[in-house]
C-alpha cells in the first residue's frame, strides 16, 4: 500500500489527524480576508464583460501576416473603443469590439480590411445586441437562484438545516472568490464563464456532502457518551475523508489546469480561458470551503444547542476529573473481560455506538465454549 494510502487509513481510524475544527477561527479569518479582497477587486475594477453581454461587433479575418497586437491597435483606432484580438488556428484573427452599432460596423470593416491588407469581402462580420446578453444574464441568475433553493431544501431534508445553512455559506464563499478573481485578473466574462460558474457549484457541494454524510453517521447517539464533543467528532469526520477529498480535487483540477495553463497560456487559445479559469478557481475554492468552512461552521451551530452544550460540559468535567487523578482518556474505557474474549472486541464494546469510524466485528464459532467445565468435555 502506498504511503498516501497508509495515511488515509490512519486518518480514517483516527490514529492521526489535524485539528481543523479547533483552528476554525484562523480559517474564518483567512476566508474573510480573501472574500474582502475579491469584493474590493470587483468594486474597483469590475468585470470585463464579453461582447455577448455588452453588445458589439465580431470580425473574423482570413490569414494575415499582421500580429494580434498590431491588429488590436488598428481596431481601436478604427472603432474608438477597446478591442480584443485573438489568433485563430487558420492564421486569421478574431477581433471583438464592444459598444459598436450597426451603422458604424461597415466603416470599421472597411478600415480593418485596408489596415490588414485583406479583401473586405473575406472579413466575416457579426453583430451582437446587448439585449441578448441581458437575457443570458437573467437566465443565469434565475438558474443560480433555483439551484441554491433546491440545494438548501435537499440538504435540510437529507441532513439538517444547520448543514444546509453551512453548505449555502460555503457556496456563496466559492462564488464570491471566483467572481473576484475574474475581476482582479481581467479575464473576459462570456457565456462559457457562466457555464463554468454553475458547474463548479456541483463540485463544491460534492466534498461538502461527503464530509456531512460521515459526520451524520458518526454523531448517532452522541449524547449517550462522554468521551467526545461534537466539534471533536466533526474534526474526525474531516480527517477520515481528507485523503478522498484531496484525491478527487487533484484529479478534477489536472485537466482543467491543462486547459488554463497549457491551452490558454502556452498555446495561446485564449477562448479557453473564460471557462477554464472559473472551473479551476471554483474547484480549488470548493475543496477549501468543504474542509475549512462548511464543517467547522456546522460544529459552531450544533454546539449552540442545549444538548451539545451539556455534552461538552460533561466531557470537559470528566477529563478534568481524570487529569486530577492522573488518568488518561485517550484509550477506550476499560470493560470487564473474560479469558476467551478478544481484546479488539472489548475495545469495540467500550466505544460509544455511532461515534468514530466503524470497527470490524469478529465472529466467534458457536461451539467454542461448548462443553467447558465438564471433565470429559462431552455432553451428557
TrEMBL record:
The keyword Transport applies. Residues 369-380 have a biased composition (Basic residues). Residues 111-303 form the Protein export membrane protein SecD/SecF C-terminal domain. It is a multi-pass membrane protein. The chain crosses the membrane at residues 26-44, 140-157, 164-187, 193-215, 246-269, 275-299. It holds the Pfam family Sec_GG. Belongs to the SecD/SecF family. SecF subfamily. Forms a complex with SecD. Part of the essential Sec protein translocation apparatus which comprises SecA, SecYEG and auxiliary proteins SecDF. Other proteins may also be involved. This is Protein-export membrane protein SecF. It comes from Streptomyces scabichelini.
Amino acid at each position: 500500500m502506498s504511503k498516501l494510502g497508509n495515511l488515509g487509513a490512519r486518518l480514517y481510524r483516527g490514529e492521526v489527524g489535524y485539528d481543523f475544527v479547533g483552528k476554525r477561527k484562523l480559517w474564518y479569518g483567512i476566508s474573510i480576508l480573501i472574500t474582502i479582497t475579491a469584493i474590493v477587486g470587483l468594486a474597483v475594477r469590475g468585470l470585463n464583460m464579453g461582447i455577448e453581454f455588452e453588445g458589439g461587433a465580431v470580425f473574423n479575418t482570413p490569414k494575415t501576416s499582421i500580429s494580434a497586437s498590431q491588429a488590436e491597435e488598428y481596431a481601436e483606432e478604427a472603432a474608438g473603443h477597446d478591442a480584443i484580438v485573438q489568433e485563430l488556428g487558420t492564421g486569421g484573427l478574431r477581433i471583438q469590439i464592444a459598444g459598436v452599432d450597426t451603422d458604424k460596423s461597415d466603416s470599421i470593416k472597411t478600415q480593418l480590411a485596408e489596415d490588414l491588407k485583406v479583401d473586405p469581402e473575406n472579413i466575416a462580420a457579426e453583430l451582437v445586441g446587448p439585449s441578448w446578453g441581458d437575457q443570458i444574464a437573467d437566465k443565469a441568475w434565475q438558474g443560480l437562484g433555483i439551484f441554491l433553493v433546491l440545494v438548501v431544501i435537499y440538504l435540510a431534508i437529507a441532513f439538517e438545516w444547520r448543514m444546509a445553512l453551512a453548505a449555502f455559506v460555503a457556496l456563496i464563499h466559492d462564488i464570491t472568490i471566483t467572481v473576484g478573481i475574474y475581476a482582479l485578473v481581467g479575464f473576459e466574462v462570456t457565456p462559457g464563464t457562466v457555464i463554468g460558474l454553475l458547474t463548479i457549484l456541483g463540485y463544491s457541494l460534492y466534498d461538502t456532502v461527503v464530509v456531512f454524510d460521515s459526520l451524520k453517521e458518526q454523531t448517532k447517539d452522541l449524547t449517550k457518551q462522554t468521551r467526545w464533543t461534537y466539534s471533536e467528532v466533526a474534526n474526525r469526520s474531516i480527517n477520515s475523508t481528507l485523503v478522498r477529498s484531496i484525491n478527487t480535487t487533484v484529479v478534477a483540477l489536472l485537466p482543467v489546469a491543462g486547459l488554463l495553463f497549457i491551452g490558454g497560456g502556452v498555446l495561446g487559445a485564449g477562448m479557453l480561458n473564460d471557462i477554464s479559469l472559473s472551473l479551476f478557481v471554483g474547484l480549488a475554492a470548493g475543496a477549501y470551503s468543504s474542509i475549512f468552512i462548511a464543517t467547522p461552521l456546522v460544529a459552531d451551530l450544533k454546539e449552540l444547542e442545549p444538548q451539545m452544550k451539556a455534552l461538552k460540559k460533561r466531557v470537559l468535567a470528566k477529563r478534568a476529573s481524570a487529569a486530577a487523578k492522573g488518568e488518561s482518556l485517550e484509550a477506550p474505557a476499560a470493560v470487564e473481560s473474560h479469558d476467551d474474549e478478544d481484546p479488539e472486541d472489548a475495545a469495540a464494546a467500550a466505544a460509544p455506538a455511532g461515534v468514530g469510524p466503524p470497527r470490524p466485528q469478529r465472529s466467534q464459532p458457536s461451539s467454542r465454549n461448548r462443553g467447558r467445565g465438564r471433565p470429559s468435555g462431552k455432553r451428557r
